[in-house]
Amino acid sequence: MGLIQRAVEAAGIATISISLSREISQKVLPPRAVYPGFPLGHPIAFPGETFRQKQVLRLLLKYLKKIDSPGTIAELDLTESDDHSVIRDISAFN
Amino acid sequence: MKERNNKIDFREKKDQLIAKLLSKYPSLFRKWVHHSKFIEFSDSPWTQFDSDISKCRLALVTTGGVHLMSQKPFNMKDPAGDPTFREIPVDTLPADLTITHNYYDHADADKDVNIVFPIERVKELKQSGEIGDVNYRHFSFMGHIMHHHIKTLMKETAPQVAAALKSDKVNIVILTPA
Hints:
The complex is a heterodimer of chains A (94) and B (178). Chain A is an alpha/beta fold and 94 residues long. Chain A has one domain (2-93). Helices cover 39% and strands 14% of the residues of chain A. Chain A has 4 helices and 3 strands, in the order αβαβαβα. Chain A has helices at residues 2-10, 22-28, 50-66, 85-88; strands at residues 14-18, 32-35, 72-75. Chain A has a 3-stranded parallel beta sheet, with helices on both faces. Chain B folds into 2 domains: 1-36; 52-176, no CATH class. In chain B, 37% of the residues lie in helices and 16% in strands. In chain B, strands 1, 3, 5, 6 and 7 form a 5-stranded mixed beta sheet that branches. Chain B has a two-stranded antiparallel ribbon with strand order 2-4. Classes of the chains: A alpha/beta (94), B alpha/beta (178). Chains A and B meet through helix 1, strand 1, helix 2, helix 3 and helix 4 of A and helix 1, helix 2, helix 3, helix 4 and helix 5 of B. Strand 1 (14-18) of chain A pairs parallel with strand 7 of chain B, so a sheet runs across the interface.
């Protein structure tokens, strides 16, 4: 996804992305990214969490303005203690 | 032919199982990333941003494999992936969307597509005046793109999407992987 972000930014549009892997982002170097600590498949939090989803978007907009150096990955921990039970539930394998 | 189809079915099932494990166990995902190869860059392109966000037009780009049910699904039969994209109109209802992507567990995104493609949330940000406008179209890729398809993505499909967003006078693009 970083490759697409780089193409859009190179076309003259300011971009920001969610990173789900610090290691990938450190290699691909998207212009601006936020690493929220969410697991794979959950860039904008969890199902039904409309307020939290919107807050993640507000944070992205905040960091769009705040990041002033190309290739910055803002590392935030937006997770809560019960988040992972959502995907660690055995029903994921049904 | 039947044997070949069986092989493809087996590989697709294997991809889906690996995706579930990587989604369920973040530490396993980190190990997988560590042993995978990615294109590396030493710098980033940059477009200065100092606009008033409440006056900006925003578009979404996802690599979560989201598409309209009426559109052609992404190709899951090619092990190297699919570098094509789908255009999603802004007035699309979540019920009209589906996900074709065997390389992450989208069980949660199937319940609420906004977790990978937050189309309803950005419309709410427009309603509350936090952003100026939501573009009339958005774009979706399927993030498993390898080998020769990377060149197609970099030389053709990603620049096509970038040019489309530029011609739409979009000021902000939010990108979501999956």
